[in-house]
Amino acid sequence: MSAPTLHLMVGLPGAGKTTLARQLETEHHALRLTKDEWMMPLFGWGEFGNKREVLEGLLWTVAARALSLGLNVVLDYGLWGRSERDDYRARAAALGARVQFHYLDAPFEELWRRIDARNKAPLPGDVPITRAQLEEYWKIFDRQRPTPEEMEQP
After folding, report:
1. Residue 48 DSSP SS3
2. How many CB atoms are closer than 10 A to CB 56?
3. 73, 74, 70, 98: which is closest to 19 by C-alpha?
4. How far apart are the C-alpha atoms of 124 and 112, rounded to whole Å?
5. What is the pTM of this model?
6. Cα separations (Å) of 148 from 63, 75, 82, 84?
7. What are the angstrom distances between the C-alpha of 69 and each of 43, 72, 99?
8. Could you give phi then psi for residue 54, rounded to 5 degrees?
9. 56-87: per-residue pLDDT in tens?
10. What are 32-44's pLDDT values in tens digits?
11. Cβ-based neighbour number of residue 137 at 10 Å
């Protein structure tokens, strides 16, 4: 039996991470864990504070169990920081799983176009994002964009 794969989505809101995650879920018979789909049902509207970290911990527990059972997993988080990406790579290795990064990038104006459209016709679980928030996210992510070499590391 081959080792399971942990698929890790990397990118900003509006880049297409969840769309690709759904595709990978089907193609690789994987458990897909999309953080944004859990936030609103669990915590409702408002300031999330440390709730994202709590949820990520819970979802990782589920992902780790699935990987240990030989199931492929898609973690649809965003993983903006290099240290986050390295952490999940190490976690997967400790479980004997392979890692496949999926880095989705788009120009700022394209991201905003997609987010604005999503804001106007949200689906259940969609969290509205303002242009000012996206600008701030862009600045944070821009300092830690992954390199091709990083994405190819096992």
Report:
1. coil
2. 17
3. 74
4. 20
5. 0.91
6. 25, 20, 13, 16
7. 29, 9, 16
8. -60, -50
9. 999 999 999 999 999 999 999 999 999 999 99
10. 999 888 887 887 7
11. 17
Report the distance separating Cα 128 and Cα 116, nearest Å: 9
Domains located in the chain, CATH noted: 5-152 (3.40.50.300)
Q: Token pair 């990520």 is at which residue?
A: 56
- Contact 12/137 with Cβ under 8 angstroms? yes
Distance CA 137, CA 134 (A): 5
CB distance 77 to 96 below 8 Å: no
Query: Do 5 and 98 contact (CB within 8 A), yes or no?
Result: yes
Residue 40: count other Cβ atoms within 10 Å of its Cβ. 15
Distances (CA, A) of 131 to 12, 42, 46, 76, 122: 13, 25, 18, 22, 16
What tokens does 69 get?
A: 């059972």
60-87 in b/e form (b: 16+ CB < 10 A) is beebbebbeeebbbbbbbbbbeeebbee
Q: How far is CA 29 from the centre of its chain?
A: 18
**What residue type is 66 in one-letter code?**
A
Name residue, tokens 């990083």.
150
